[in-house]
Fold S-(Hydroxymethyl)mycothiol dehydrogenase.
Amino acid sequence: MSQTVNAVVVKEKNAPAVVEQIVIPDPGPGEVVVDVLTCGVCQTDQHFQQGEVGDNFPYLLGHEATARVSEIGEGVTNVKVGDKVILNWRAVCGECRACAKGDLKYCFNTHNAAQPMTLTDGTELEAALGIGAFAEKTLVHSGQCTVIDDVDDSANAAVGLLGCGVMAGIGAAINTGEVKRGESVAVIGAGGVGTAAIAGAKLAGATTIIAVDLDPRKLEKAEELGATHTVNSKETDAVEAIRELTGGFGADLVIDAVGIPATYKQAFYARDLAGRVVLVGVPDASLTLELPLQDLFSRGGSLKSSWYGDCLPSRDFPMLVDLYQQGRLDLDAFVTERITLDKVQEGFDTMNRGEVLRSVVEIQA
């Protein structure tokens, strides 16, 4: 039978994120109900709150989560009751034109739960990224679950960040940017995603890793996670500084983890000839970019966008968890503070002040 639980909902554009009671239906075919353990406070949830993703209010927020499977629907075979999982928003369909070509990371029809969760008055909720994990329980498609049963409970908050921001950053470097051993990498924006990109560049063997930001606190954390050089772009021209640190040429790869025209132009001009630019910062839908067409032609190289770090959760989550358990990827460093479900709005405020890499909501023991 359906269950009523506490969850964080935003009912209209720019309304506060507040705890409400919601109704979780029994899982249908291919669906599972999970008890949420932890969920990171991600910028994307605030984009939902501000109406920048859509206007399908009310939204059930939260998507960067670890959970434990409590119920499974008909036909579910990839997880069982009791499994600990990381939730993801790329449950590939296996049937669309991208999947048919073998490009599963570009799946155009990723699975979500078919049934809606609702408020107690029956109002249907739109779950953020098909997950809605700022909740005691949530309903997802079984393909949104990657099993991590060998992870100690003390690590739940850290590994759950692979569900979005950390995976986006690491994947931007390794999957989209294809960092090679010995290359130079510059990352513009040293928030959670940018710092994860720095960690990814280090994992891939980059030898010059330049972090660019306006905030000296973020630059200090970037150094802890792998940056070999830092540039405070409030004090120094970022493009000139990156070129100076790379022999006058520019970096092999520049990652824009901010997503505004000014930082993208910095990334474009701070790369070497035939270098690569990766955009992983999520831009506001109202923004436009203007670049001289001659510069696009004459500089060569590649300009890419990285959506979820071009990841396959079934492949990448276990690999990164293994690296974490080996001590080669410090996911714990991304967990700045642990908060309760009723503090999500305060978590957004803390994030906006640049005081955290991630606040993590701890929901279940």
